[in-house]
Amino acid sequence: MHVSLDGYVAGPKGEMDWIELGDDMWDVVNEITATADTAIFGGVTFGMMESYWPTAADKPDASQHDKDHSKWVNAAAKIVFSKTRQKSDWAGTTILHDIVPADIQKMKDQPGKNLLMLGSPSIAQQFMDSDLIDEFWLNVNPVVLGEGKALFANIHHKTNLKLIGLKKFESGVVGLHYEIVR
């Protein structure tokens, strides 16, 4: 997830034009997605993803990143948490209206690869509050927004983290990989 130096994942009107995405970052993205076979989204993030990724690799000017990520996300199971969405035509999509921690834990315990949450800060906050997150990949962008949508808002307990990876990208973004200390 991309965050500003002051902990925001989007500006006050949802803007994300401040996010730096360099080519060197996509190598790390590919490493992360290779460990996962399920993508988790909130409704807003899913809407953005669904409008682009199903056909991104088919465009004549598709970058290698678009081809790689499109291949992964189209093959992945997609779980969407939304109170309003009823269906999707994107293959492999399951829509759930409520986060039931015991059900999520069962998904995590199943054989296979990891579950990977992409964006979706409101869903991330609910998962954090229910102790359902094992690791964080945070890309700290060299910008202070001053206000916006905070990643760690509405968290009701202390969470200890252990830094297990760090990468500085050419753009000035710092990638931080943390695991939850339980």
Provide an overview of this structure.
This protein has 182 residues and is an alpha/beta fold. The chain has helices spanning 23-33, 43-50, 64-75, 101-109, 121-129, and strands spanning 2-4, 8-10, 36-42, 77-81, 93-96, 114-117, 135-141, 149-150, 160-168, 174-181. The protein has a single domain (2-181), classed as 3-Layer(aba) Sandwich (Dihydrofolate Reductase, subunit A). Helix 1 (23-33) runs parallel beside helix 3. The longest helix has 12 residues, at 64-75. The protein is globular.
Quick description:
With 182 residues, the protein is α/β, with parallel strands linked by helices.
Q: What structural class results from the helix and strand content?
A: alpha/beta
- Give the % helix: 25-40%
Number of domains: 1
Give the helix tally. 5
CATH topology: the name is: Dihydrofolate Reductase, subunit A
Radius of gyration: 16 Å
Helix/strand order? EEHEHHEEHEHEEEE
The shape is globular
**At the first level of CATH, what is the class?**
Alpha Beta
Question: Sheet with the most strands?
Answer: 4 strands, mixed
CATH architecture assignment:
3-Layer(aba) Sandwich
Portion in beta strands? 25-35%
Walk across the major sheet and give the strand order: 1-7-10-9
The separation of the N and C termini measures: 22 Å
Low-pLDDT residue intervals, each spanning 5 or more residues: none
Q: What would you give as the CATH superfamily? A: Dihydrofolate Reductase, subunit A
Number of strands: 10
Instruction: Give the averaged pLDDT, no decimals.
Output: 95
